[in-house]
Write a structure and sequence with these properties.
Chain B: InterPro entries: Anti-sigma_ChrR, Anti_sigma_zinc_sf, ChrR-like_cupin_dom, RmlC-like_jellyroll, RmlC_Cupin_sf. The structure holds two protein chains of two kinds. Chain A is mainly alpha-helical. Chain A has nine helices and no strands. Chain A has a single domain, classed as Rna Polymerase Sigma Factor, Chain: A, CATH 1.10.1740.10. The chains are: A mainly alpha, B alpha+beta. At the A-B interface, helix 1, helix 3, helix 4, helix 5 and helix 6 of A face helix 1, helix 2, helix 3, helix 4 and helix 5 of B. The structure holds zinc ion.
Chain lengths: 219, 216
């Protein structure tokens, strides 16, 4: 399925997204003030972090219920777009949300937003469910003695995630649709090409273009 | 640890890993490389972030059943499945490979395929295949071309071909256009993870006889 993959490139378009996340490791974060309220009336990412921390420290059911009301309908939509039947998706979403409770102690807000974390749990569950495959995960990094995440890193990650999200919303619809298909359709680039009737090269260059735009938006 | 890695995964593979669209064998390759390469790991995490943003802003949501929250709380009360056992560390095999081998490098069940080369096929779904390759120090893998795509990552030792030299963590990406003959460094036996979505095709006569054994 990857016969037409280009030569390895270490500074390709994905560098776009990569740079966004790497910024927090550099001095760019210094002097920023924490303004991460989003403009669409949603809760800021930070509040979801507080919810997960309350679940972790106090088994807080009201906090879980709020997270559930926000994320479960999104996870269910994601699973249905990926090919689950509605009843499969319902059951699977409940399992994803239960996993979120059980794994709350593993959540690291300096490495991922709550939405990202929920996404990875849902994606893995989807592979399990639809493909009956296991999903190999990279070896856990050992972070050394200072295990508590740094507050500055947490805020920086939230800001950058909010920024990426905004940039993503600003993409032309056609590019956004392709990224959504790549993530939610359980489709390889080749399969997207077959579905949309566009040549594979066009799909790849459009996705690349979208990632480039995201990079520019993040500068 | 990863500063010396020169040959990395492509954007398409990293995005595919994050989006969950790769066959299991390719996921295994990516997870193994990420275990050794901080640069690609950071990129993969960025692609996960993109996935998180897509989830937040999915164009339409789908209502859960009326009793879904209660049902989920009941699931939670039912407890958690036991985590997979963590296996002892191994200098050659990163954690994802230890899971597939069921232990460390000494637990690999090698099968000879001729000329000192050995392989062990790993259990993955049929969409693509994964195997470990053992190439004795100084030995060559027969000149071969590829049908489809083949990724080879070095775990121990190093090999060289017309393209470059590949050491631990480096990934060589071969497609239909590449015909090559990897030669292991003389200093150490070379162990690689190779994944492919098609059987290898060999050029010279003797290797062609070997092909049924190498074919997976
Ligand atoms: Zn890499």
């Amino acid at each position: 399925m990857f016969a037409e993959v280009e030569p390895v490139e270490t500074c390709g378009a994905a560098e776009a997204v990569h740079q966004i996340m790497r910024k927090r490791k550099t001095s760019v974060r210094k002097g920023k003030t924490a303004v991460n309220r989003e403009d669409d009336g949603c809760k800021p990412q930070g509040e979801w972090v507080a919810h997960v921390l309350r679940i972790r420290s106090a088994q807080d059911k009201p906090a879980f219920a709020e997270l559930f009301r926000h994320f479960a309908p999104r996870v269910k939509a994601f699973l249905i777009k990926s090919g689950s039947t509605p009843s499969q998706a319902e059951e699977c979403t409940q399992e994803v949300m239960a996993t979120l409770w059980h794994k709350a102690h593993l959540f690291d807000p300096s490495r991922a937003s709550v939405a990202t974390w929920v996404y990875t749990i849902a994606r893995n569950r989807r592979i399990d469910l639809l493909r009956k495959e296991r999903r190999p995960e990279p070896e856990e990094l050992t972070w050394g003695p200072e295990a508590e995440p740094d507050q500055v890193d947490i805020v920086a990650l939230q800001q950058e995630t909010a920024h990426l999200r905004k940039a993503l919303k600003a993409l032309p619809q056609a590019q956004r649709d392709l990224i959504e298909k790549a993530y939610f359709g359980d489709l390889s680039h080749r399969e997207i090409a077959a579905r949309t009737g566009l040549p594979l090269g066009t799909i790849k260059s459009r996705i690349r273009l979208a990632l480039d735009r995201l990079r520019h938006a993040m500068k | 640890m990863s500063n010396e890695i020169k040959h990395h995964l492509t954007d398409e593979l990293l995005m595919g890993y994050s989006a969950g669209t790769l066959p299991e064998a390719f996921n295994l390759m990516v997870a193994t490389h990420l275990s050794l390469c901080d640069a690609c790991r950071a990129q993969a995490e960025s692609y996960d972030t993109l996935g998180g943003c897509m989830l937040q802003d999915v164009s339409e949501t789908v209502d859960m059943a009326d009793d879904a929250l209660d049902a989920t709380l009941a699931l939670i009360a039912g407890g958690v499945a036991a985590d997979a056992p963590t296996r002892p560390s191994c200098d050659v095999l990163p954690a994802p490979l230890r899971d597939y081998v069921g232990g460390s490098v000494s637990d690999i069940k090698w099968k000879p395929v001729g000329m000192g080369v050995k392989q062990a096929i790993l259990p993955t779904s049929a969409a693509a295949s994964a195997r470990l390759l053992f190439i004795p120090a100084g030995a060559a893998v027969p000149d071969h071309g590829h049908k489809g795509m083949e990724l080879t990552m070095v775990l121990q030792g190093a090999f060289s071909d017309a393209i470059d030299r590949f050491a631990r963590g480096d990934v060589e990406i071969a497609d239909e256009d590449l015909e090559h003959m990897p030669v292991a460094d003389i200093s150490a036996d070379c162990i690689c993870l190779a994944v492919t979505d098609a059987p290898l095709k060999f050029n010279s006569l003797i290797p062609r006889l070997l092909q049924p054994f190498l074919r997976i």
